[in-house]
Amino acid sequence: MDLGVFIKVGHNEQVEVTTPVIITWHNGKSRMVGDFRALNTYTIPDRYPIPRIHETLTQFSQAKFITAMDALKGFHQNVLTDNAKRLLRIIVHCGIFEYLRMPFGIKNAPSHYQRMMNTIFPEELSEGWLIIYIDDIIVCSETWENHLTRLERVLQKIVQVNMKISLKKCHFAYSELKALGHVVSGLSLGIDKNKVAEVLLKPMTQTKKEIKSFLGSAGYYRQHMKDFSRIAKSLYKLCDK
């Protein structure tokens, strides 16, 4: 509430509400999200495209300077319409709360956010040196002078639209860094070993849903695995039964 993400609107109002879910990350941090599965079922999908990771990674080719920035709680920087607020209410022991900002967990949030970011940086994206993947902002350059100029352009727009950036997640002018689940530079592309460890440390899959989740995680790195389709074929068959 102190951050202006939601407000209390009542206690026993006869309104459609959902319950919150606490998600705990591998680093011990947690985030509260609404259980919007029922709402998502009735939501018309927004087909706005999210960039393909493997195609996006080719933009790092020849880059000698790479800067990665991350929007601070990016979804929460989007103000909701009054109609959306009424649909995005959560109930806890102390009352009913209404989101004022776009929450995590709603079906079209990633597509909406990607569209917004692409609208802010159309020229930079068309020139091929800026990468936007939802709330990740990455600037690539072959020379130091170009990098400074491009950073200035991006930061000016960030200020103009009053976007907040997480400084602790910013990495300025690196020759190699972790981005989009990979270790990238202008000369090579590797796998982020921490991301691989997260997959390996998960319990053995028991259900179709868990198998699909595993295949999604493994498939993210399929370009690094010879004969991935052949190896994973039997698992895909299990999901189809």
Structural class, by secondary structure, is: alpha+beta
**What strand order characterises the main sheet?**
7-8-4-9
The CATH class of the largest domain turns out to be Alpha Beta
Q: For the record, give the distance between the C-alpha atoms at the N and C termini, rounded to a whole number.
A: 46 Å
Give the full name of the CATH homologous superfamily of the largest domain: Reverse transcriptase/Diguanylate cyclase domain
| Radius of gyration of CA atoms, rounded to a whole number | 20 Å
Share of helix among residues?
25-40%
Element pattern in H and E: EEEHHEHEEHHEEHEEEEHHH
CATH architectural category of the largest domain: 2-Layer Sandwich
Percent in strands: 15-25%
CATH topology grouping of the largest domain: Alpha-Beta Plaits
Overall geometric form: globular
Average pLDDT confidence is 83
Count of individual domains: 2
Low-confidence stretches: none
Helical run tally: 9
Domain Reverse transcriptase: 1-184
InterPro entries: DNA/RNA_pol_sf (IPR043502), Rev_trsase/Diguanyl_cyclase (IPR043128), RT_dom (IPR000477), Viral_Replic_Matur_Polypro (IPR051320)
Pfam families: RVT_1
Protein name: Reverse transcriptase domain-containing protein
Word description of this protein:
The protein is α+β, with helices and mostly antiparallel strands. It folds into 2 domains: 6-201, 2-Layer Sandwich (Alpha-Beta Plaits), CATH 3.30.70.270; 202-241, no CATH class. It is 34% helix and 23% strand. It contains 9 helices and 12 strands. It has helices spanning 37-41, 53-57, 82-87, 109-120, 122-126, 144-160, 193-200, 208-219, 228-240; strands spanning 6-10, 20-24, 30-34, 65-70, 89-92, 95-99, 130-133, 136-141, 171-174, 176-179, 182-185, 189-191. The strands form 4 sheets. It has a 4-stranded antiparallel beta sheet with strand order 7-8-4-9. Strand 2 (20-24) and strand 3 (30-34) form a beta hairpin.
